[in-house]
């Protein structure tokens, strides 16, 4: 077997490591709508859901961050991390696992405590919460990450605008709180970042990339922007 074939087979095995090849069907459907039945069936047959339950992650979303980090290697020991929209806490768990020195999360919802992280209830867009986060971090952040998404309407154009708007708010927040050479990671929809936001990212960070981790469902239009090498708060003035 030549090297290219070996690498190809290795990649295939890695992508299918959670695939059991088995299908679970619902035993009880009475009282459940068709959409509820579909959701439950998908959950029962989702290998990432099973893996998360087995390994103690709060949600399957933890694997999205794990896979992004496997590719881009942004999680480092002793980092100070901010988790925007932290519920249910899976991303904060991953940051703690990678030995971040501080992990501070915020969410509109109350989040069950995560050992090693400080997650509080609030709106990150409210100015006073910036000071709260800085106080809890005891300084600025090395990584700001966001897996936030607004409730979808089913209208693709509207949903794209809403997710971009939320990501822009997260970016503006990150620019205020990041250390030099810091990292920003956030969810967007396929189609990538809008031109204005992409321009802001490129002015503020040395490298900007998009990726869809294997844990992201095939039918999902979500995509992640990974921006590394924060240039500093004055970077926009130098464009």
TrEMBL record:
InterPro entries per the UniProt record, alphabetical: RNA_methyltr_RlmE, RNA_MeTrfase_FtsJ_dom, rRNA-MeTfrase_E, SAM-dependent_MTases_sf
A molecular-function term among this protein's GO annotations: rRNA (uridine-2'-O-)-methyltransferase activity
Keyword line: Cytoplasm, Methyltransferase, rRNA processing, S-adenosyl-L-methionine, Transferase
Renumbered residue ranges of the record's region Disordered: 1-22
Amino acids binding S-adenosyl-L-methionine: 89, 91, 107, 123, 147
Predominant location category: cytoplasm
Any one GO cellular component localisation term in the record: cytoplasm
Chain ranges passing through the membrane: none
UniProt catalytic activity: uridine(2552) in 23S rRNA + S-adenosyl-L-methionine = 2'-O-methyluridine(2552) in 23S rRNA + S-adenosyl-L-homocysteine + H(+)
Entry annotation: catalytic residues: 187
Localisation per UniProt entry: Cytoplasm
E.C. code: 2.1.1.166
Domain Ribosomal RNA methyltransferase FtsJ as annotated: residue spans: 57-230
Family: Belongs to the class I-like SAM-binding methyltransferase superfamily. RNA methyltransferase RlmE family.
Function: Specifically methylates the uridine in position 2552 of 23S rRNA at the 2'-O position of the ribose in the fully assembled 50S ribosomal subunit.
Name assigned to this protein: Ribosomal RNA large subunit methyltransferase E
């Amino acid at each position: 077997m030549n090297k290219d074939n070996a690498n190809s087979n290795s990649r295939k095995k890695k992508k299918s490591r959670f695939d059991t090849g088995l299908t679970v069907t619902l035993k009880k459907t009475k009282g459940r709508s068709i959409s509820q039945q579909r959701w439950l069936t998908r959950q029962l047959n989702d290998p990432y859901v099973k893996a998360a339950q087995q390994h103690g992650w709060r949600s399957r979303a933890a694997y999205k961050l794990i896979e992004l980090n496997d590719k881009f290697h942004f999680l480092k020991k002793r980092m100070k991390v901010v988790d925007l929209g932290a519920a249910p806490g899976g991303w904060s768990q991953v940051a703690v696992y990678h030995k971040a020195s501080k992990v501070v999360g915020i969410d509109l919802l109350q989040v069950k405590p995560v050992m090693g992280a400080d997650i509080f209830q609030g709106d990150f867009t409210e100015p006073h919460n910036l000071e709260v986060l800085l106080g809890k971090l005891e300084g600025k952040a090395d990584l700001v990450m966001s897996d936030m998404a607004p409730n979808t309407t089913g209208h693709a154009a509207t949903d794209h605008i809403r997710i971009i708007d939320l990501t822009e708010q997260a970016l503006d927040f990150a620019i205020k709180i990041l250390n030099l050479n810091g990292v920003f990671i956030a969810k967007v929809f396929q189609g990538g970042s809008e031109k204005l936001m992409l321009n802001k990212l490129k002015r503020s960070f040395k490298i900007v990339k998009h990726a869809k981790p294997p844990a992201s469902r095939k039918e999902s239009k979500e995509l992640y922007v990974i921006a590394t090498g924060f240039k500093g708060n004055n970077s926009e003035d130098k464009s």
